[in-house]
Amino acid sequence: MQLLRPATRGSPASSEAPMNTTPVSRARFLAVLLAALMVAALMAIAPPVAEAAVKKPLDIVKIHYDPAGKDHSKNSHYKKEFIQVKNIGKKTLTLTGYTIRDNGPQKFTFSKGTKLKPGKTLTIRSGKAKNTSTTLYWNKSSYIWNNTGDTARLYSNKGKLLESCKYKGGVHKKATKTSVRTTKTTAYC
Q: Measured on CA atoms in the order 83, 87, 92, 97, is the torsion positive or negative?
């Protein structure tokens, strides 16, 4: 006959089953506890998927960085070089204050009242000329995009980086983690 001990603080009551404390059960408990802590830590560090996605209403489509022919220091040649952006959203965008930058000091700022309808593309050419509804000009007396490689960065009117498009000069048929697909003359972002 087994004697029943009275319940004391911190010990199981006489009617409760005794706690199994074998080394194997402790190891399982610790493994489960460790896994739960790791999941909790990852959830605290990583944002939810919906927050992680960057909403960018404007997308860099391509950069024509090396037009055919020799690079002459003439406005007619500068204007053959361009970058294209596309409204990938569902609403007309007012691009006032949006900017495009290269790896150097070059900066293009969309002028007040510039609008782009959903699904439409806007071309920004190097060189000087009169702007139209589909083509804007950098208004510089120089080429903007380097033939040997460059990076185009697109910023919102609040200075938030929306996209970065890095390319290497020459033909690269496949995109990599660091640069986009290119032909001899054009980068496809």
A: negative
What 8-state DSSP symbol labels residue 51?
H
User: Which CATH number characterizes residue 78's domain?
Assistant: 2.60.40.1260
- Asked whether residue 26 is domain-assigned, the answer is no
pLDDT tens for each residue of 70-117:
777 888 788 999 999 999 999 999 999 999 999 989 999 999 999 999
Work out how many domains the chain is built from and give that number.
1
The helix/strand/coil state of 36 is: helix
Asked if the structure places residue 6 within a domain, the reply is no
Element spanning 25, H or E: helix 23-45
pLDDT higher at 109 or 40 = 109
Q: What is the pTM of this model?
A: 0.67
Domain with 156 in it: 56-188
> CA-CA distance, 106 to 61, in Å (whole number)?
19
Query: How far apart, in whole angstroms, are the C-alpha atoms of residue 165 and residue 151?
Result: 5
List of residues 6+ apart from 83 with CB closer than 8 A:
60, 62, 63, 64, 100, 123, 124, 144, 145, 152
